[in-house]
Design a protein that fits this description.
Number of strands: 6
Number of domains: 2
CATH superfamily of the largest domain: HAD superfamily/HAD-like
CATH topology of the largest domain: Rossmann fold
CATH architecture of the largest domain: 3-Layer(aba) Sandwich
Bound molecules: 6-O-phosphono-beta-D-glucopyranose, magnesium ion
Shape: globular
Order of helices and strands: EHHHHHEHEHEHEE
Distance between the termini: 5 Å
Radius of gyration: 17 Å
Low-confidence stretches: none
Structural class: alpha/beta
Largest sheet: 6 strands, parallel
Mean pLDDT: 97
Length: 210
């Protein structure tokens, strides 16, 4: 491929935390009596924690103060972090690991570009704590996807320009962020059928065919 670096989204690309997000939000929503299901959970993909909470609270008649929202978000995060502790290196598929190893052997710089503030914990759980050349995540940004900040920072940390990097995403919000930042993209899952995705992928290892 004609790039110097590859920037990977984490959740839904490198590993699958969807179900843990769902279970944690569901427990929080049940506690305050708000309806929440898998369909609403799908709208949270790639969206920051506080923006996710706002989507969940659309179903509520009550107006929540900023303080109350902070409390709810941290309650969800505590539940979520406990669930993340169940993850092990077995949650990293052979296909993903072998593709990453192959890209690395070919000399590409590899980075993470994720909205999650739990990125480092997740990478540690799946055994990739020290693997990437750069990590840009929810802890170093003020604007979440579809804003391009997380990818622009990742490129900067790699010492590369956006046009020298390929972004790999599963979420529409992530592809919009890539486009806004001047990046080409590869998409799996729902991003694979999105018209703004440069390279739709059937599976992760198709990256090696670009
Ligand atoms: C993204 C997920 O990677 O991170 C979203 O796709 C999630 O679903 C977001 O809301 C923020 O995650 P965290 O771990 O900071 O709550
Ligand atoms: Mg994702």
């Amino acid at each position: 491929m004609n790039y110097k670096g590859v920037i990977f989204d984490l959740d839904g690309v490198i590993c699958f935390t969807d179900q843990y997000h769902y279970l944690a939000w569901k427990e929080m929503a049940d506690e305050i009596g708000i309806y929440f299901d898998e369909k609403i959970n799908n709208r949270l993909r790639g969206v920051s924690r506080m923006a996710s909470l706002d989507i969940i609270l659309e179903r509520s008649d009550k107006e929540y103060s900023t303080d109350e929202k902070e409390t709810l978000a941290s309650k969800k995060n505590e539940i979520y972090k406990k669930l993340l502790l169940k993850m092990t290196p077995d949650d990293l598929s052979d296909e993903v690991k072998e593709t990453l190893d192959s890209l690395r052997a070919d000399g590409y710089k590899l980075a993470i570009g994720s909205s999650s503030k739990n990125t480092k914990l997740i990478l540690k759980q799946i055994g990739l704590e020290k693997y990437f050349d750069a990590i840009s995540d929810g802890t170093n940004i003020t604007h979440s996807k579809p804003h391009p900040e997380v990818f622009l920072k990742a490129a900067e940390y790699l010492g590369l320009k956006p046009e020298e990097c390929l972004v790999v995403e599963d979420a529409v919000a992530g592809i919009d962020a890539a486009v806004a930042g001047g990046f080409e993209s590869a998409g799996i899952g729902e991003a694979g059928s999105y018209e703004k995705t440069t390279y739709p992928l059937q599976s992760f290892s198709d990256l090696l065919k670009i």
